[in-house]
Design a protein that fits this description.
binds D-ribose; 147 residues; Ribose 5-phosphate Isomerase B, Chain: A
């Protein structure tokens, strides 16, 4: 599996830890789209697009996005067609984001979420299968809105 990841300066440190975890402990190939320096202030909207486009052109199936709170970058990512970016704060929301929402991007905040919770959220988001059924009907309605 291949995952695209990006963050703004507000979550640089957590992004680096998550990348290390994905590569070393989960054996996942990671495409890192920055940012690369936490001392340079950047705009989360630019980073949301980098990961969203990787999913839209089918280079990767899933992505992870982070900003200070996770709010701005999830709002921006959800403007892209076919993107279901879920801002999660715990393992329950991370699990449900896969089970019910088929979230293709997991989002969390570098100033909100600690590394251990982040790791657990990534695990449960990756290992939970989308339930489909009635949830697909709902996602189809989102597709209609996108059109
Ligand atoms: C940047 O300071 C901060 O506004 C950003 O990381 C994020 O929290 C926005 O939603």
């Amino acid at each position: 599996m291949k995952i695209a990841i990006a963050s703004d300066h507000g979550a640089f440190e957590l992004k680096q830890k998550i990348i290390k975890y994905l590569i070393r402990k989960k054996n996942i190939e990671v495409l890192d789209f920055g940012t690369d320096d936490e001392n340079i202030s950047v705009d989360y909207a630019d980073y949301a697009g980098k990961v969203a486009k990787q999913i839209m052109n089918k280079n990767v199936e899933k992505g992870i996005l982070l900003c200070g709170t996770g709010i701005g970058i999830s709002i921006a990512a959800n403007k892209y067609k076919g993107i279901r970016a879920a801002l999660c704060h715990n393992t329950y929301t991370a699990r449900m984001s896969s089970l019910h929402n088929d979230a293709n991007i997991l989002v969390f905040g570098g100033r909100i979420t600690g590394i251990e919770i982040a790791k657990e959220m990534v695990n449960v988001w990756l290992s939970t299968k989308y339930e489909s059924g009635r949830h697909q009907r709902r996602i189809n309605k989102i597709h209609k809105i996108e059109k």
